[in-house]
Automatic annotation (TrEMBL):
An annotated Gene Ontology molecular function: acyltransferase activity, transferring groups other than amino-acyl groups
One Pfam family hit: Acetyltransf_7
Natural source organism: Hydrogeniiclostridium mannosilyticum
UniProt-recorded name of the protein: N-acetyltransferase
Entry keyword set: Transferase
Length: 261
């Protein structure tokens, strides 16, 4: 049975804080609370947890989850896409894969020297840098959602960004985290302006970012075949695989049939 999460205790004590996908759910609840209309949380008694922000969901589930129920619930709840472990995605065959990759993780560096950097530059500047770094496998998210979410999380201490500038001018490189729990932090983005690459700036901002994170373990989501050498040189190792599924809209006749049954 799927039920709405109405109190934070329903999310804690189940290992979500240390799970690569559950940590996103816990961090989202910590940043926005449980009463906002644009972000929703659910728990299935068989061992699955869901969070959905503006149609994009994260799913953390175990082998005991009722996958048939979840496969019917997602489109009925207005979910348009769902991020989950690749091992979970095989139980949701009705939804096509629109992106996939790997999760790399490492223990956070402690006591390491912190490179020179700027803390929490403006979201507009960060977005401009992300746009300059777009590739075939990476596209910057829509500006409004990125700006509002990063601004909110930064103001409430739920996100941290670091950057370095080129000769005091434009941002040359940045790294930021919008997901942090007591056990795990996610590096949400790293970008180096094309004309500034090859100078070690990417490694510099990643090390600087880790100095501002309190979680003992850090992870990053990476598209397959992209930036592998960079992250491995920083000590990250593959720990899981992720899949983003496109949730097809519920067909009215199918929904009516289930309601009648």
């Amino acid at each position: 049975m799927v039920q709405a999460v109405t109190v934070s205790e329903m999310l804690y004590g189940h290992g979500l804080e240390a799970d690569f996908f559950g940590c996103r759910i816990v961090a989202l609840a910590g940043a926005y609370g449980l009463a906002q209309p644009f972000v929703r949380f659910w728990r299935q008694s068989q061992g699955a947890y869901l969070a959905c922000l503006d149609g994009s969901a994260v799913l953390s589930g175990t082998g005991t989850a009722d996958w048939e129920e979840l496969q019917a619930f997602l489109p009925a709840a207005g979910v348009r896409s769902v991020l989950c472990d690749a091992a979970v995605a095989v139980h949701l065959p009705a939804f096509p894969v629109q992106a996939d990759g790997v999760v790399l993780a490492r223990m956070r560096e402690g006591g390491a020297a912190v490179p020179e950097h700027e803390l929490n530059p403006g979201p507009r500047e960060l977005y401009s840098l992300l746009k300059q770094c777009e590739t075939n496998t990476f596209r910057a998210p829509p500006f409004e959602g990125f700006y509002l979410d990063l601004s909110h999380r930064t103001r409430h201490g739920a996100a941290v960004s670091v950057a370095v500038r080129e000769n005091g001018g434009e941002l040359a490189a940045c790294a930021f985290s919008t997901v942090q729990t007591a056990s795990l932090a996610v590096i949400s983005g790293v970008a180096v302006r094309p004309g500034c690459r090859g100078k070690g700036l990417g490694s510099q901002v990643v090390r600087a970012l880790q100095a501002h994170l309190s979680a003992p373990r850090v992870c990053v989501y990476r598209a397959r075949g992209e930036n592998e050498a960079f992250y491995r040189a920083l000590g990250f190792q593959q720990s899981a695989s992720f899949v983003e599924l496109r949730v097809l809209p519920e067909q009215p006749e199918r929904l009516m049939r289930r309601l009648i049954e």
